[in-house]
Design brief:
68% of the residues lie in helices and 0% in strands. The protein is mainly alpha-helical. It has one domain. It is globular and about 50 Å long.
Length: 153
């Protein structure tokens, strides 16, 4: 039963489109995870991010660390095409939670000119759409998923 679940989660065909989607999604999500986890790209790093999530936002530690894991390690797994569907689902949930808890209050549009505080959620809709496409289609070409559990057809 567990084997069937793993096969279903990792089974994919050698299509190029999922490869392009997962690489693009990884390139976009990795810096956000690296900001939170390592302090790269102008981020605050693990300790400050955890403090902010726990103290300022009131998020329990278990749930505060999930975005860091999904964004940092998940984006690395996506590059490899490893457990693509599971990682993509995690990223979609991460973005939906970010919209609900933070960005919906700022409206739809990203703020490019600094006219007001905060960012809208238009970016998140695109990320969720890409992630859902990967949940449906799997890792595609050049993925560990394909190498291990490729389509028998």
């Amino acid at each position: 039963m567990i084997g069937e679940f793993v096969y279903g989660m990792m089974q994919t065909e050698g299509d190029v489109l999922p490869l392009l989607l997962r690489v693009a999604l990884s390139i976009v999500i990795f810096p956000h995870g690296a900001q939170k986890f390592l302090g790269w790209f102008g981020g605050d790093g693990y300790r400050a991010t955890m403090d902010y999530f726990k103290k300022a936002m009131g998020i329990p530690a278990f749930f505060a660390i999930l975005p860091m894991i999904v964004e940092f390690f998940g984006s690395l797994a996506l590059i490899l095409g490893l457990v693509t569907r599971l990682v993509a689902l995690g990223i979609a949930v991460d973005m939906l939670v970010a919209v609900w808890t933070v960005h919906r209050h700022n409206g739809f549009f990203m703020i490019w000119e600094g006219e007001k505080e905060g960012e809208g959620f238009e970016f998140h809709i695109l990320v969720v759409a890409i992630a859902v496409a990967l949940v449906i289609g799997g890792g595609g070409a050049l993925s560990v998923d394909l190498a291990l559990y490729g389509s028998p057809f």
